[in-house]
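ok here's the first one, seq then struct tokens
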Amino acid sequence: MMQTILVVEDDYELNQSISYMLREEEYEVRSAHSIKEARLACYEQEPALIILDVNLPDGEGFRFCKWVKEQKDLPIIFLTARDLEEDALTGYELGAEDYVTKPFSMKILLQKIRVLLKLAAEEAEDVLDDGYLKIDLSRVKVEAGGRECAVTPTEFKILQEFLTHRGQLLTYNVLLERLWDIDGQFVDKHTLAVNINRLRSKIEDEEHKYISNVYGMGYQWIDIS
């Protein structure tokens, strides 16, 4: 699947040059020449990455960056003629991943894009967010229905196993082997069932069920997003 990059630049010639270069690299490209157009593009199709100028006809790119980061943590590269240190610091403080000043190298810009998209893909593998349940494995954080869930180390390890093997049946023996002696505690089949039931009580409700008990065999994570 082609990744979409949004280019927000009011210089039409530069916008076209960057867009052409990205299409040659087999990215899908959306072009915007103002904050208004950029917001509309984000509503129509969420980009994988945004290249953003600071000086735009209807406001500063800083404002758009702040808006984007409040919606979702998409990678943003500022590409601007404003080379003051305080401008760069503002960009980074707002959450931008990079701040590139003009003139710039197209080859270096492409490499920065590749690196950021790779990092974003790796981080996405560690995060589940279906609107109700959010699990961030790298930050050891679990939220359900907008509330943070306090999970034990064993429960979190169980979540890791389920998310790493989504849709697969994890037999009792497989889970017991992987949870064996976690934090110095012996885990048997009964303890496993207790932990999974306790975990389900924290992350599930009547409308959101994630863990299926395959009778006599084991457990399976079911994506409902």
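and now the second one, same deal
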Amino acid sequence: MQKYLSLTENTDFQRAYHRGRSCARPALVVYSNKNRVGICRVGITTSKKIGNAVERNRSRRVIRAAFRAVSAEYPFKGNFDFVLVARSKTKYLKMEKVRLAMVECLREVGAI
């Protein structure tokens, strides 16, 4: 399993949104941007459109578990900043469905 850190700075999120490559699926949206930090960094966002705090937290947990499974299974082609955005469908899906959508998106943006 590859090591990764959390994205915490707003500027890192904005850089991924504006300069990075994106891929959208009904389960989630993936923004990826190469970094020079030397390690992959991940940020997960859920808006209030998703639902109340319980539903947003469940969406984040499902996305985090899916990312852990993907990073253990596939090696990344470099160091990236990933911003994973939950969509309204995410709160109803199991981790495996989100993982499949994440693999498709990461392939499309060229990370795996």
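notes on #2: The mean pLDDT is 95. The beta strands are 4-6, 21-24, 28-34, 40-45, 80-86.
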